[in-house]
Amino acid sequence: MIINISVMISKERSRKRQRECDDSYITKYHLFQNKTDYVFALWLYQTRITKENVHKYFDDIQLHSLYLLLSFWTSDEWLNLLHQISYDIDNEQWQSRAFCISFLYEEADAVQYNIKYQNIIDSLHFLLKHRFFEKDLIYALIHHYNANNCRVYSEMHTIDWWWETQEKLSDDVIIVSLLLTTDKTALTQHQSDLVAWSFYLIIENLSWCIQWA
Question: Is 122 in contact with 90 (CB distance < 8 Å)?
């Protein structure tokens, strides 16, 4: 019985692969072939299920009837689909570079790090024209005062530096203030015991509540 199920799944997988090669195969769920495919992939992501448990799920042959509704049958295929989702960034393409850091004391070996990045200018263009940020992007400078008529400095567009700098520029130039931060992130959920240092690009023209939403 298990052999028959495996053969059936294998044949369905072959038909799916052939269908994916057809450029005309495009659905409203983009990379996912149907609503069930999309909803299940979203559920795996939102529940923060570990890669090991995703493996266990797909190893359960009793769930073969659900497999036939999916475009992925392993955790690696699921993650690969997530990584292929386009965010409509111009020339969206991840670049990879390696660099070494040497230490002052001789007995320590140089450590090599790998970095993945995208063109920051293209990313900025995407964020600044993002329709969901339209009402929350601030370009006009503001002075905030409390009930005692004292200045209140809350967000970047309320500080004196921004005012003083904007006054030095022509009328057709607007300041876009950027903040770049980094933090250590454990990848134990899907990538074993690896650790990464993520860089976060923050546009200070966005209201604070949206930046950290």
Answer: yes
Tokens found for residue 213 = 């939403």
Residue 103: per-residue pLDDT: 74
Residue type for 146, please? N
3-state SS of the chain is CHHHHHHHHHHHHHHHHHHHCCCCCCECCECCCCHHHHHHHHHHHHCCCCHHHHHHHHHCHHHHHHHCCCCCCCHHHHHHHHHHCCCCCCCCCCEEEEEEECCCCCCCCCEEEEEEECCHHHHHHHHHCCHHHCCCECCCCCCEECCCCCEECCCHHHCHHHHHHHHCCCCCCCCCCEEEEEEEEECCCCCCCCEEEEEEEEECCECHHHHCC
Q: Indicate if the pLDDT at residue 9 is higher than 80.
A: no
Question: What tokens appear for 96 in the block?
Answer: 């990879």
How far, in Å, CA of 139 to CA of 169, rounded?
14
For residues 143 and 151, the answer to whether their CB atoms sit within 8 Å is yes
4 pLDDT above the threshold of 60? no
d(CA 196, CA 114): 10
